[in-house]
Amino acid sequence: MSSLIFDIETNGLLETLTKIHCISVYDKQKHTALSFHPNNICEAILILEEADELIAHNGFWFDYLAIKKLYPKWKPKGLLRDSLAESRLIYSNLKNLDFERASEEEGICVAQEALWVPFLKSLGLPLR
Q1: Where are the beta strands (DSSP E) in 57-114?
Q2: Planar angle of CA 78, 81, 85, nearest 5 degrees
Q3: C-alpha count within 13 angstroms, C-beta hemisphere, residue 78
Q4: Which of 26, 60, 67, 117 could form a disulfide with 5 if both were Cys (CB 3.0 to 4.6 A apart)?
Q5: Alpha carbon distance 75, 100 (integer Å)
Q6: Chain center to CA of 22
Q7: Whether the Cβ atoms of residue 15 and residue 66 lie closer than 8 Å to each other
C-alpha cells in the first residue's frame, strides 16, 4: 500500500490560481521525499493519482481542489485524507484548551476575539 503525504504551492488562492509551482511528496512506507518543480509537475500528478492513500493538510479545502481545477481529468484511485480536518475532529475544543492552559500557566486572561482582530484586518474583512 502506498501512502503519500504531500503539499502543493500555487500562484494564488483557489479562485485565482493558474499554476502549481511545486509539489513535495513524502512516501510513508519507503521513507523517501521527492520534490517536483514546474517542469515535472505532471509526473507528480500521476504519482499522486496512483497512490493508495493521499494525505494533505487542508487538502479537502485546497490541495485536492486546486489539482482538480488545473488537471480536470485527475482521478486519484486511493483514499483522500486531510490532516487539518482530522485534527479538528480529534481536538474540536483546542481553542478553549489553549486559552485555559494560557490563563492557568501564565496567569493571563485574553479575550479570544482579540486574537482574531489583527488576522481579520489583514484579510481586509469588515469588523463590527
Answers
A1: 79-82
A2: 160
A3: 18
A4: 26
A5: 44
A6: 14
A7: no
Spell out the per-residue pLDDT of the chain, length 128, in tens.
899 999 999 999 999 999 999 999 999 999 999 999 999 999 999 999 999 999 999 999 999 999 999 999 999 999 999 998 888 888 777 667 666 666 555 555 555 555 556 666 666 656 55
User: How far, in Å, CA of 102 to CA of 127, rounded?
Assistant: 26
Structural domains of the chain in order of their starting residue, each with its CATH number:
3-89 (3.30.420.10), 93-122 (no CATH)
| Per-residue buried b or exposed e for 45-60, using 16+ beta carbons within 10 Å of the residue's own CB | bebbbebeebbbbebe
